Amino acid sequence: MSTLRDAPDSVCSTFGPPIRRGRWQARLAQGYELAALQILRAQVFRGDAGAEDADAYDADSLHLWLGEEDQAPLATARLRIHRDAPSLLQGYTAQAYDLTPLLSPQSDNFPMIELGRLCAAPQSDRMQQAEVMRLLWAAVARMVLRSGAGRLIGCTSFQGADPAPLTPALTYLAARHLGPDTQRPKATATEAIRFTAQCTPSLEGQAQLPTLLRAYLAMGGWVSDHLVIDRALDTCHVFTCLDIAAMPAPRKRALTALAEGAPDL
């Protein structure tokens, strides 16, 4: 069995056959399906399926489609494979963070996968959402395998643009999950709140973490040292990074099996 980051670069543009679980499947969306994914994104991120959630980054990205064939999608994510510094510094995340610290000459920087707009249909019940999100992570792992990416990056959002209630979560992140000093992106956004670790991290802070962020951290991910307020989407978000080589071996094996369509998914 190949492992995450062992796949040849020549197959990076091919997702391969859909990953299936029962009646659901995960695959790359075709061009005509992007509109349906944007409707789902608008419903999740803007609270209105009729709102617009499209931007210039969509055209240069790959889009995951999860759901039943010939039905509305249940989940999606946007992925962009960065192969060099100019690409990374022109991506969506670079709008709000100075990513130049990620370009350390001492590290194997590229390819990187920028992951964003990851969401599941809000009307799904909790069990269904959990299954769908597991399938989505299998699809992300497939893209890591196919591209040979060594790093996943992106922004992970908290609901609401008011940072005040998030103090326990930010204290927890500051104490437990900050990235290396030399690699953490610097603050460039107009509204950015720097973390403080002056208080003892609490279970309340851990409980406040969004599901996606918990998933990143459980796989060995780390965060920046500040929170960015995004009033357009009514969210606050943190930069999140997952170095594939630093993932715990059991997690890496499990994701590799999911990516390869293990029957016990």
From TrEMBL:
Q: What is the lineage of its organism?
A: Bacteria, Pseudomonadati, Pseudomonadota, Alphaproteobacteria, Rhodobacterales
Tell me the pathway: Lipid metabolism
Can you state which reaction this protein catalyses?
Answer: a (3R)-hydroxyacyl-[ACP] + L-ornithine = a lyso-ornithine lipid + holo-[ACP] + H(+)
Could you identify this protein by its name? L-ornithine N(alpha)-acyltransferase
Biological process according to GO: lipid metabolic process
Q: Does the keyword Nucleotide-binding apply?
A: no
The entry's family comment says: Belongs to the acetyltransferase family. OlsB subfamily.
The record, for PANTHER family, names:
GCN5-RELATED N-ACETYLTRANSFERASE (PTHR37323), L-ORNITHINE N(ALPHA)-ACYLTRANSFERASE (PTHR37323:SF1)
A Pfam cross-reference name? Acetyltransf_5
Q: What does this protein do?
A: Catalyzes the first step in the biosynthesis of ornithine lipids, which are phosphorus-free membrane lipids. Catalyzes the 3-hydroxyacyl-acyl carrier protein-dependent acylation of ornithine to form lyso-ornithine lipid (LOL).
The EC number(s) given in the record are: 2.3.2.30
Q: What class of enzyme is it?
A: transferase
One function term, GO molecular function aspect: ornithine-acyl [acyl carrier protein] N-acyltransferase activity
Xref: InterPro entries: Acyl_CoA_acyltransferase (IPR016181), Ornithine_N-alpha-AT (IPR052351)
